[in-house]
């Protein structure tokens, strides 16, 4: 792999950047792989990378129906945090957080992970109780978190309306200072490049249209370009997981919903951190380019159209203007939607399936991006050994039968 | 924003008046106590989630407050029919000409 | 210096109305009718900004929505600041204050530009992914400097003084664009009687007709425009919306129109007037007549001020009477662009030469130019602009477009204006908002909208449809309008269209990036996306590095991600990527456009729904009294509930202690009106209650009330409340304040979808009845003063209700208790409630009746161990977890909701978290609500957490602190200790005990 550095850039500028190498090959699929990963988004590419790097499994292919990182990786609001309520999820997301904190160096690709701090505002007494509960749990789990009162919030977040004039006045906030944002596309590209360098075949524009099974075990994937054999298959297809499960012959406790986001025109920095409000129903950060990046809750219906309904956008901007009245004259540039696979307890499914050697990693709902490195790492470990990684075990499909759910609805940025 | 025909009101109304309530035709088992944990879990949580024609339950929350069914394409969002609770859909994924062409036109 | 570029005559401006404005601190003059861009050009302003990445000087390029450079900050006061206003779309008004958004110390001498020149070579696309990685801890520092360069304009830092409104509209035909196609469509649809909305983003209707050389019926095209508008204005069903951009095309033919009502008059609207309005339109049919944007050619240094679109210069000359330069060179691949040559000559200016990429152009305007002595270099193109802050010359060479080669050394011609035209891109944006893919048409070298496929009920007309000749455009528009009206159910009315003299035009030649004698990587920068500083070399680099999908190219280079969303650059970028990979544009594909077509003010989307109107506020009938008596309020759902009633400067704790003691020792009054109330009637009402509540209802007699728990199918508690039997077939259910709507919907869904055979009806009566709770040992004495109901303890026992008069008003009085004291809940019709409340207050004086709020209610109920759903529970708590097994009818015949769920394996675990009481070892320490609990405080992090505090208070009555908590296996751990390690490092130790602290036998409520 051609190493990236500031010096490299300087050197290449003399040759007018004509000699940069490809970031990844365009390989012809081999007949059979040790592991085939379906889905070339951030999670799938991270899985492939860690398989090759940490677990010595290099005969790996990632099969992607479109372009690498083209699903939710390319469409999310890039928030990274690990301040989840329950032990199981806090540990999983904190595992991801620790990987984020060295990722650029690990994959030699600047994913611009920026620990600007993530605030979750409280507007009611119950919000404050929940915040105390969450921060307290985080602290005892080794996840950083602080609870701020209204005065501290006012001091830390400029332009946030902390007056009593708002419909739901701000009473306080939690803050995770290690939380922040990262550059979403770079995560996919960085993992792709690093995985490719370790020998992983990244096969784009190839859609999986079925799973070939023998004696109850998967032996490969049927694609629109032919069969690809595999000893194990990991499916990481986010919004399309339900569809993939259907192809494999079973159902999942998932519903795919549109999740919308929008950006403003680029403006000079005014929002320094990530500010989320569950009660008022919106969240906002500002990218390094100057765009305000804004999101909210999912649309209520199932949808694979990568778009949602306009009134959801209206409510979102009402929330933003309610929180930051000074932004009223700023203008929305683009809006779009992703397809999020929501689970009943707002936690992912990282699990074996009724089909042997077929593993699914899905159900991340609205919170997948922040988990990317951790999700990839534990899924890679599970695929390599054929047994679920300890951090993944609580996230088995079985929990929807036994009742051992990990109900994170209260911990999600926006309830849904 | 969807435009939904409420079969009770007999009018096309804007989505803001309605709430989607998930997959339609999920009947509560008649003898819950006879269900295994797995069967009860399937009833509560597992859904079809198709990419294509889907039968959904909606409620005219800010209207007549009636629940009704909608056959809708989950990629094009086209509503193919709405019908009352207790009625059967006339458009199904198996029966209707598949909207695959349209669907492919809009997935990216 | 005054308006050096203003022509002596011409233009649709009002020269009698001079307007002065300032740009970058300097005052200029323009005329009414000018756009800000026109006024700047008239005054000879070349540089309007510095580019985003390289800080290169930039000037105005276009005349409309596609302008990438002239993105300015507007506003004379802080609150009125508007960032990123496109000068080409801003009407000039007197006193307008505009500033460039980048450049230090000024746009003319920008020090960052030096950095851009020196460092630019190190800033290919994606350079930041390749650097700033080491050492790891420095990224936040690097980023701080990167962020300094972020953004174009700036947000105001004061609150917006303006208001915005919304209008819901339904129409038969919405016509997007009021150019020739749109006007013709509007006439056709309007004449049929259809309800029509015609919206156009510009200051006035007419589109290309406002500056065309062509004539209609031998008269200036603007005559016909005026006539068409007059006819449309006379039609009652036609709504004309100028300054209104159809910015989003949503599902089921729902479109949003962003109308600027006052932006052309000033930066803030007059008092009481909305600045902008969002029309939310449901249209039966849409006629898309959005026209086309001219594409520039991509050549070296094509960003130097003085490089403009050919058509834009025609617009400035003909519409605004502004000639932005003296000596013009045109580089083109098509005939239509020659109009700029003729317009320029008509303006009395000099045309230096035309470089036409075609070998032998012979179209009508080409010949006219030739006849007027213009030098036309065929098979040639401008390959490079000369100059730094303003064009000083153009290098024109012979080229082989197909082979992408320069074939002659060429010559450098002196000029101060280079205009180019590479063809016309239909404005397909709205057609792809729902995912429809545009389709490439080789004959017009552009994408046209894909079919609506039933997802969009849309008819395309005019240039967007690939129809360009004016006569055809009018006919196409008229036909589309008639068709749309017919499809909406109207009978088409025919009408004649003006005559247009057909213009002989020859085919254009495919040319996007002009070849240079150096390779793309080594030639001077050839800009594709001016706003984002994306160059042809950058796009080639992206493909070289493996970014082969069009989306990858866009994302890696930032092509099309600016506020202009690539209106000028996208097709050129696509063509360059395709060429560099040796594939066709069709193979390359295109990207989808998302809303918005042009940016939309947040405030306009939000409308009036902020502040007071952000969410409905619900008040009880006694609100006025609460306010008068100094209540502090708590938000509970949408309700404003009195939280506590401080007296004489009391804080929360002092007030609550006083209120608590008053209830325990004498009597208090609580406004409990917000509890959800559902009236349930029907012969099967009782059976229904049996199915939705965990406990049994079969034997509840008329006149009695009972507490009930409600679970979801998973066995987790989701609401609770007391339900009273009003009659054999009639019950009144109460719910939690926040859960009322949820519960009603819950009852309805089960009734309508699962058990429609049950005869039962549900009606929300929350707002109909007001509830006042009298609680405390003196409550009976007090109530007796204002009621005719027999309050004798045997006649009116605990958990029963009576009807009678209270304060002279018919009332239902429930003898139930949430405090553990003797209590009566008085329900009266809400209209009478305030009067009754005031009578009770008056009557209560002798008992020192104390109004109390939700906080006191919380403390008192916690002393009794009564739960609050949502505080002491989350969605993972079963009745057994709450030690409320007594409230579960395990033998009820029907398998009620929640029964099966709470018998799943995980719900039967012994070590589940269970609700218990906690008594801090130090009776003065109050555990924080939410604090996590551990058995061993000495363990290292991560600690094994065993539960958390759900409710915690200081009890004034008992004189010590206490709490409710969920603790793993807690019910079997009575007397054991738990610890709450707090954020400040301290640890609170507490003993696990029963959650019923006060009057455990319940004597007080039964007296």
From TrEMBL, chain A:
Could you say which cofactors this protein requires? FMN; FAD
- Record EC number: 1.5.3.24
Instruction: Look at the named UniProt entry and state the broad enzyme category this protein falls under.
Output: oxidoreductase
Chain ranges of the Rhodanese domain = 35-79
Annotated signal sequence is none
The protein's annotated catalytic reaction(s) are: sarcosine + O2 + H2O = formaldehyde + glycine + H2O2; sarcosine + (6S)-5,6,7,8-tetrahydrofolate + O2 = (6R)-5,10-methylene-5,6,7,8-tetrahydrofolate + glycine + H2O2
Stored Pfam families:
DAO
- Provide the protein's localization: Cytoplasm
The family database entries (NCBIfam families) matched by this protein are listed as: soxB
> Any idea what this protein is called?
Sarcosine oxidase subunit beta
Automatic annotation (TrEMBL), chain B:
State the Gene Ontology BP annotations: tetrahydrofolate metabolic process
Provide the GO MF annotations for this entry.
sarcosine oxidase activity
**What InterPro entries does the record tag this protein with?**
SoxD, SoxD_sf
Membrane-crossing residue ranges in chain numbering: none
Quote the Pfam families the UniProt record gives.
Answer: SoxD
Task: Tell me which Gene3D superfamilies the record gives.
Answer: Folate-binding superfamily
The protein here is known as Sarcosine oxidase subunit delta
Automatic annotation (TrEMBL), chain C:
Record domain Aminomethyltransferase C-terminal: where: 913-999
Domain GCVT N-terminal: start-end pairs: 623-891
All copies of domain SoxA A3, residue ranges: 524-607
- GO MF, any single term: transaminase activity
**What EC number(s) is this enzyme filed under?**
1.5.3.1, 2.1.2.10
**Record bears the keyword rRNA processing:** no
Keywords for the protein's UniProt record, in alphabetical order: Aminotransferase, Oxidoreductase, Transferase
Instruction: Output the GO biological process annotations, alphabetical, semicolon-separated.
Output: tetrahydrofolate metabolic process
- PANTHER family, A to Z: AMINOMETHYLTRANSFERASE (PTHR43757), AMINOMETHYLTRANSFERASE, MITOCHONDRIAL (PTHR43757:SF2)
Q: Which protein family is it in?
A: Belongs to the GcvT family.
Q: What is this protein called?
A: Sarcosine oxidase alpha subunit
User: Which organism's genome codes for this protein?
Assistant: Ectopseudomonas oleovorans
- Species lineage: Bacteria, Pseudomonadati, Pseudomonadota, Gammaproteobacteria, Pseudomonadales
């Amino acid at each position: 792999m051609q190493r990236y550095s500031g010096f490299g850039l300087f050197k290449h500028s003399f040759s007018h950047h004509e000699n940069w190498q490809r970031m990844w090959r365009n390989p012809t699929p081999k007949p059979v792989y040790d592991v085939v990963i379906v889905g070339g988004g951030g999670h799938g590419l991270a899985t492939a990378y860690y398989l090759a790097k940490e677990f010595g499994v290099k005969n790996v292919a990632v099969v992607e129906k479109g372009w690498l990182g083209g699903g939710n990786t390319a469409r999310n609001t890039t928030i990274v945090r690990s301040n989840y309520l329950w032990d199981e999820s806090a540990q999983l997301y904190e595992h991801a957080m620790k990987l984020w904190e060295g990722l650029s160096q690990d994959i030699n690709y600047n994913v611009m992970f920026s620990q600007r701090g993530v605030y979750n505002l409280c507007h009611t007494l119950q919000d404050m109780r929940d915040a105390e509960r969450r921060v307290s749990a985080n602290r005892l789990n080794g996840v950083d978190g602080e609870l701020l009162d209204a005065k501290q919030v006012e001091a830390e977040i400029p332009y946030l309306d902390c007056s009593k004039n708002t419909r739901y006045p701000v009473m306080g906030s939690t803050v995770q200072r290690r939380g922040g944002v990262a550059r979403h596309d770079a995560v996919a590209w960085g993992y792709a490049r690093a995985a490719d360098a370790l020998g992983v075949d990244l096969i784009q524009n190839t859609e999986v249209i079925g799973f070939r099974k023998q004696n109850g075990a998967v032996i490969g994937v049927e694609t629109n370009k032919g069969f690809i054999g595999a000893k194990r298959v990991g499916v990481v297809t986010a919004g399309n997981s339900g569809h993939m499960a259907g192809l494999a012959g079973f159902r999942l406790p998932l519903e795919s919903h549109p999740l919308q986001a929008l950006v403003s025109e680029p403006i000079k920095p005014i929002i320094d951190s990530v500010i989320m409000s569950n009660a008022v129903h919106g969240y906002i950060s500002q990218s390094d380019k100057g765009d305000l990046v804004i999101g909210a809750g999912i649309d209520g219906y199932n949808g694979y159209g990568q778009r949602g309904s306009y009134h959801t956008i209206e409510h979102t901007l009402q929330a933003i203007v309610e929180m930051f009245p000074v932004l009223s004259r700023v203008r929305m540039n683009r809006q779009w939607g992703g397809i999020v696979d929501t689970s009943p307890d707002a936690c992912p499914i990282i699990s074996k399936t009724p089909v042997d050697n077929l593993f699914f990693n899905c159900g991340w709902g609205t919170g997948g991006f922040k988990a990317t490195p951790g999700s990839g790492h534990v899924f890679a470990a599970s695929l390599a050994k054929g047994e679920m990684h300890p951090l993944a075990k609580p996230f088995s499909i079985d929990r929807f039968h036994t009742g051992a759910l990990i109900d994170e609805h209260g911990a999600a940025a926006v309830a849904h | 924003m969807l435009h939904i025909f409420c079969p009770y009101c007999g009018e096309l109304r804007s989505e803001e008046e309605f709430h989607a309530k998930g997959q339609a035709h999920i009947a509560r088992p008649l003898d819950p106590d006879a269900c295994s944990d797995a069967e009860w879990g399937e009833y509560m949580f597992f859904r079809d989630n198709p990419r294509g024609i889907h039968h959904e339950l909606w409620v005219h929350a800010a209207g007549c407050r009636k629940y009704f069914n909608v056959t809708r394409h989950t990629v094009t969002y086209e509503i193919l029919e709405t019908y009352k609770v207790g009625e059967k859909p006339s458009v199904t994924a198996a029966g209707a000409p598949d909207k695959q062409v349209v669907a492919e036109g809009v997935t990216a | 210096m005054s308006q050096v570029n203003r022509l002596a005559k011409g233009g649709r401006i009002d020269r009698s109305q001079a307007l002065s404005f300032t740009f970058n601190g300097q005052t200029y003059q323009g005329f009414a009718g000018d756009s800000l861009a026109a006024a700047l050009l008239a005054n000879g302003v070349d540089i309007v900004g510095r580019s985003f990445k390289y800080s290169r000087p930039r000037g105005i390029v276009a005349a409309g929505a596609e302008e990438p450079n002239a993105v300015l900050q507007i506003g004379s006061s802080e609150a009125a600041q508007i960032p990123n206003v496109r000068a080409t779309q801003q009407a000039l008004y007197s006193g307008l204050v505009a500033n460039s958004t980048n450049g230090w110390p000024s746009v003319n001498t920008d020090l960052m530009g030096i950095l851009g020149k020196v460092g630019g070579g190190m800033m290919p696309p994606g350079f930041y992914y390749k650097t700033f990685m080491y050492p790891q801890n420095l990224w936040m520092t690097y980023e701080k400097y990167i962020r300094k360069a972020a953004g174009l304009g700036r947000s105001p830092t004061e609150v917006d003084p303006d208001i915005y409104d919304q209008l819901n509209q339904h129409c038969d035909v919405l016509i997007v664009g009021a150019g020739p196609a749109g006007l013709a469509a509007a006439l056709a649809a309007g004449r049929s009687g259809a309800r029509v909305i015609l919206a156009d983003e510009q200051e006035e209707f007419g589109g290309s007709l406002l500056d065309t050389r062509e004539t209609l019926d031998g008269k200036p095209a603007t005559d016909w425009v005026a006539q068409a508008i007059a006819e449309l204005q006379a039609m009652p069903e036609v709504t004309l919306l100028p300054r209104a951009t159809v910015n989003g095309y949503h599902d089921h033919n729902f479109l949003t129109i962003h109308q600027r009502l006052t932006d052309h008059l000033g930066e803030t609207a007059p008092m009481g007037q909305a600045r902008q309005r969002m029309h939310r339109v449901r249209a039966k049919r849409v006629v898309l007549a959005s026209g086309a944007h001219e594409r520039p050619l991509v050549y070296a240094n094509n960003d130097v001020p003085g490089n403009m679109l050919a058509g834009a210069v025609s617009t400035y000359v003909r519409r605004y009477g502004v000639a932005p330069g003296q000596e013009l060179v045109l580089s083109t691949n098509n005939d239509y662009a020659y109009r700029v040559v003729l317009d320029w000559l008509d303006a009395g200016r000099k045309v230096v030469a035309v470089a036409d990429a075609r070998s032998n152009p012979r179209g009508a305007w080409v010949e006219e130019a030739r006849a007027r002595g213009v030098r036309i270099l065929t098979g040639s193109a401008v390959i490079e602009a000369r100059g730094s802050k303003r064009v000083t010359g153009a290098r024109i060479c012979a080229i082989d477009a197909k082979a992408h080669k320069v074939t002659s050394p060429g010559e450098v011609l002196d000029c101060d204006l280079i205009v180019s035209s590479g063809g016309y891109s239909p404005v397909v944006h709205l057609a792809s908002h729902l995912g429809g893919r545009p389709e490439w048409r080789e004959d017009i070298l552009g994408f046209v909208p894909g079919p609506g496929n039933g997802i969009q009920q849309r008819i395309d007309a005019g240039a967007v449809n690939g129809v360009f000749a004016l006569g055809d455009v009018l006919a196409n528009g008229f036909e589309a309008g008639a068709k749309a009206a017919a499809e909406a159910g109207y009978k088409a009315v025919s009408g004649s269209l003006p005559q247009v003299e057909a213009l002989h035009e020859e085919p254009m030649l495919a040319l996007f990036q002009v070849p240079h004698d150096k390779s793309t990587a080594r030639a001077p920068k050839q800009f594709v996306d001016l706003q984002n500083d994306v160059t042809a070399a950058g796009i080639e680099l992206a493909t070289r590095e493996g970014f082969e999908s069009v989306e990858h190219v866009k994302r890696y280079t930032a092509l099309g991600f600016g506020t202009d969303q690539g209106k000028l650059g996208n097709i050129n970028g696509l063509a360059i990527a395709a060429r560099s990979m040796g594939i066709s544009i069709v193979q390359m594909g295109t990207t989808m456009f998302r809303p918005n077509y042009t940016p939309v003010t947040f405030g306009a989307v939000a409308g009036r729904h902020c502040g007071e109107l952000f969410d409905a506020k619900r008040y009880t009938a006694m609100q006025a009294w609460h306010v008068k008596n100094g209540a502090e309020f708590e938000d509970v759902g949408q309700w404003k509930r009195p939280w506590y009633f401080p007296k004489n400067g009391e804080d929360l704790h002092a007030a609550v202690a006083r209120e608590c003691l008053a209830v325990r020792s004498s009597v208090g009054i609580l406004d409990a009106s917000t509890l959800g109330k559902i009236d349930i009637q029907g012969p099967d009402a009782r059976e229904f209650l049996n199915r939705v509540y965990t406990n049994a209802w079969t034997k509840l007699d008329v006149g009695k009330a009972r507490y009930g728990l409600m679970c979801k199918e998973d066995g987790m508690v989701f609401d609770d409340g007391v339900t009273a039997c009003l009659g054999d077939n009639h019950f009144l259910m109460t719910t939690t304040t926040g859960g009322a709507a949820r519960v009603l919907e819950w009852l309805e869904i089960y009734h309508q979808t699962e058990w429609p055979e049950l005869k039962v009806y549900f009606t929300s009566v929350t707002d109909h009845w007001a509830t006042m709770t009298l609680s405390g040992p003196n409550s009976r004495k007090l109530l007796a003063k204002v009621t005719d109901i027999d309050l004798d303890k045997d006649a009116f026992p605990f958990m029963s209700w009576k009807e009678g008069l209270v304060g002279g008003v018919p009332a239902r009085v429930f003898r139930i208790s949430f405090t553990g004291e003797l209590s009566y809940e008085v329900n009266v019709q809400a209209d009478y409630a305030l009067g009754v409340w005031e009578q009770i207050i008056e009557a209560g004086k002798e008992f020192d009746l104390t109004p109390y709020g939700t906080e006191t209610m919380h403390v008192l109920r916690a002393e009794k161990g009564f739960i609050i759903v949502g505080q002491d529970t989350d969605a993972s708590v079963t009745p057994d977890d709450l030690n409320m097994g007594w409230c579960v009818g395990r033998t009820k015949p029907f398998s009620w909701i929640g029964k099966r769920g709470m018998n799943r394996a995980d719900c039967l675990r012994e070590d589940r978290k269970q609700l218990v009481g906690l008594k801090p070892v130090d009776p003065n320490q109050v555990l924080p609500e939410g604090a996590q609990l551990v058995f061993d405080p000495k363990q290292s992090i991560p600690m094994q957490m065993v539960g958390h505090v759900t409710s915690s208070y200081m009890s004034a009555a008992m004189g010590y602190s206490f709490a409710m908590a969920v603790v793993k296996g807690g019910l079997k751990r009575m007397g054991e200790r738990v610890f709450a390690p707090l954020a400040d490092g301290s640890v609170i130790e507490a003993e696990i005990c029963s959650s019923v602290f006060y009057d455990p036998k319940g004597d007080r409520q039964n007296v």
